[in-house]
Amino acid sequence: MQDRTYTADAEPGEDATVAGWVHEIRDLGGIAFLILRDSTGKIQIKFEKDEMDEELVEAGLGVSRESIVSVSGVVEEEPRAPTGVEITPTSLEVIAEAEPELPLDPSGKVDAEISTRLDNRTLDLRKPEVQAIFEIRAVVLSAVRDAFREHRCTEITTPKIVATGTEGGTELFPITYFGEEAFMNQSPQLFKQLIAGSNVERVFEIGPIFRAEEHNTPRHLNEATSIDFEGAFCDAHDAMDVAEAITRAAYEAVAENCADELETLGLAAEFALPEESFPRLTYEEAIERINATGELDEQLVWGDDLPTEGEKALGEDVGTHYFITEWPSEIKPFYIMDDADDDQLSTGFDMMHPRMELVSGGQREHRYDHLVSGFEQQGLDPVEFEYYTKMFKYGMPPHAGFGLGGERLLMTMLDLDNIREAVLFPRDRQRLSP
Ligand code: ATP
Ligand code: MG
Questions:
Q1: In a domain, 92, yes or no
Q2: 327 and 220, same structural domain?
Q3: Hey, whose CA ends up nearest to atom 10 of ligand 1?
Q4: Whether 214 and 134 share a structural domain
Q5: Residues 90, 132 within the same domain
Q6: Environment class of residue 110 by beta-carbon count within 10 Å: exposed (0-12), middle (13-18) or buried (19+)?
Q7: What is the extent of the structural domain holding 151?
Q8: Total domain count for the chain?
C-alpha cells in the first residue's frame, strides 16, 4: 500500500495514512476512540462527534471489531493516548469488514481452548503474546544459522521423501510415490553423514522431520523442526561443544533482541542465559543420581532407557542444561560408534534441559564392515541402504553430529506448557488441518 505509515512510525505534526485492524472502539459520548492495530503496535483515532463529518463518525464507530480499515489524518501529540499520539481522521475507508461474531477473542479477554486457537490461528496470532513466540522463534532460527556459519558449517537441505527410513520401519509415515511405497523422512541422519563424508565436511540443516508417534504428549509432534549438525573429523565431545554453542547463541540472541517480546510473555525478569559449560554426566552417573532422588517406584538398572519421570527427577537435581554421555550401546542407534575401549558403551550423548531431552547425538560408525553388521544386528537389510553404506567404501572420515529439536528449544526457553505453542500449524494425532 503506497504511503502507508506503520502505527509505530506515526510522528506528531505529520499527515499520515495508517491501515490495520480495528482493535477496539471506546465510545465515551461526545468523544469516541477507535484503536487501530498493525504489526508494529496500536494507535488511537479520535472522533469528536459534534465537530466532525457525520458520515465519517458513523463509518468509524459503526465498524465491527477486527475489520480492516485505513485512516488518514493529522498525527497529534496526546499524552493521554496509549502511545502518546493520536490521529484526528479526515477520511476513513473500511477495506474488509469482519463478521461481528468471532470464533475467538483476539484481545485475549476471553480465554480459548488450544484446539479453538489452532483452528483459528490467524485470529490467535493477533494476540501479542502469541505473536511474541513466533517473533522469538524467528530470532532463534536466525541466530542458530549464524552460529553454525561461525562454526564453519554449510547449510544443506535434504529430501523429505525417501525410499527407506533411518532407524527401521517404526514411526514412519508411508506415502505412495508413483505407485511405489515411500516414506516421509524421520531424520536427515543418513544424508547429512553422506555430505560430511564429502569435501564439504561440516554441515547443518534446519528442516522438518516426520514421526508417526501414536501417542499425543505435550512434547511430541508428528512433524517437528530438527536442527541438525554433522562434522567430519569430529568426535562426540566436539559435537557436544557445537550443540552447547548453538543453544547458547540462541539464548543470547533472544536476550539481546527480544526484550519487548519477553516482556509481553511476562519473562523479562526471569529470562536467563544457560550456565557456562553444561555438566557432562555419564549414563551410569545419571541413573545413580536418579535412583538417589527416590522419585521412581523402581530403581533403574544399567541398560534401562531413562523414563520421563527419571529425566524430570534428574533435571530438578542438576538444575541446568546438561549432557548424558556413554550410553549403553544397545539403547542407541546402530550408526552410533561404540566406545573405543568398551563395546558395551557407545559414544552417543543426549543434551538435556532440566525439563526434557533437547538433543541426541554421537560419533558415527564410519568403518564399512562395522556399519554393515550394525544394520544386520538391528534387523535391517543393508542392501536397502546400499546408497548410503557404499559411500563408506570410498574414503569416509570419522565424523560426529547431533539433532536438536527446534520446538523443544523454544518450549524450554520460553517455559511453554505445550510444544504446540511453538508451531504455527502443528501436526499431531488429532490434527491434520489447518
Ligand atoms: P524422545 O525420546 O524425547 O521422544 P527421541 O530420542 O525419540 O526423543 P531423537 O530421535 O533423539 O528423538 O531426535 C533428536 C531430537 O529431536 C530430540 O532430542 C528432540 O528434541 C527432537 N524430537 C524428536 N522427536 C520429536 C517429536 N516427535 N516432536 C518434537 N521433537 C522431537
Ligand atoms: Mg533421542
A1: yes
A2: yes
A3: 360
A4: yes
A5: no
A6: exposed
A7: 122-279+320-422
A8: 2
Residues 167 and 201 in one domain: yes
In the predicted model, what is the mean pLDDT of residues 150-158? 98
Q: What's the distance, CA 149 to chain centroid? A: 19
Model confidence pLDDT, tens digit, residues 244-297: 999 999 999 999 999 999 999 999 999 999 999 999 999 999 999 999 999 999
Question: Which ligand has the minimum distance to the alpha carbon of residue 173?
Answer: 1
> What CATH number does the domain containing 72 carry?
2.40.50.140
Q: Please give the model's pTM, rounded to 2 decimal places.
A: 0.96
Nearest-angstrom CA–CA distance, 359 and 80: 50
Q: Determine the distance separating the centroid of ligand 1 and the alpha carbon of 405, expressed in angstroms.
A: 6
Whole-number Å distance, alpha carbon 282 to ligand 1 midpoint, is: 20
- Within this chain, do residues 247 and 334 fall inside the same structural domain, yes or no? yes
Cell of 298: 523402581
Q: How far apart are CA 243 and CA 249, in angstroms?
A: 10
**Residue of the CA atom closest to atom 1 of ligand 1:** 357
pLDDT at 380: 85
Length of the chain: 434
Pocket test of ligand 1: the residue of 172, 206, 215, 220 to mutate, having most ligand atoms within 8 Å of its CB, is 220
Res 168: pLDDT: 58
Q: Does 407 contact ligand 1 (Cβ within 6 A)?
A: yes
Ligand at shortest distance from the CA of 408: 1
